[in-house]
Design goal:
alpha/beta; 34% helix; 6-stranded mixed beta sheet; single chain; 19% strand; 10 helices; 280 residues; 5-stranded mixed beta sheet; 11 strands
Amino acid sequence: MRLRTLLGDHPGTAALKNGSIRSDLVEFDFAQYSPTNRGFKPMVREGAFDVSEMAIVTYLMAKSFEKPMVLLPDIVLARFQHGHALYNAKKGKLAPRDLNGKRVGIRSFTTTTGAWLRGILANDYGVDLDSIDWVTFEDAHVAEFVDTTRRAAAGKQIVQMLIDGELDAVLGEKSDHPDLKPLFADVAAEENAWFGKHKVVPINHMVVVSRTLSDRHPDVVREVHRLLAESAAASFAAPRFSPDEMRRSLELIIDYSAQQQLIPRAFAVDELFDDVTRAP
């Protein structure tokens, strides 16, 4: 069976994408999107793929609107988030606890990195997320989500707005501009302390399959999982999560997403899978 597939170029997907891992049961027609997240919207809105990489917060939001997708227990991107927040040091010192009432830019309010960072700011630093003037540049992948943030003027660029003093901080970005500094002053120390407290590595992207594929061809879905797992095992740089580690990470991003009203309720982790995808 040939499967329309969206997978980015990650260490854990390399062996699958370069053909060194093959299957007698399935073949993959890889769609080309750069960056990969540009393919998430057509997957959510149009069911464009049979197999798709997917930002976990986008999947949670899609599930809340009953989009016909099912999660696989395959993680393709996970990272600590603290290094993806910047402020303009030329405008004065700014620390996480100083963000109340400030202007904060983010590509889209619904990005997974943004949800992780807002959860960290609110729960570990006491930031009042409702006090912040959120400035966004793109709409959500899930069309039904009502975005109440302030949209930047057409043509504006998020990092340039920070440099120009039109924003006080940005989330989800990195830059080597000399005026821009990490919002978390010692990123490595902050990440280590946060991991020590939560015992969680934040998951960014996993893999989903269409509900139709899972319902009609469970053997194919199991084969897709096997291939993804084998491809990940072929790379030392691929994310390594035990089932308990994956569950803890999913539980926390579910809680953060519910707190931020990205989803109407906190799902149980088992709800994210179906009888086919839960078993592995």
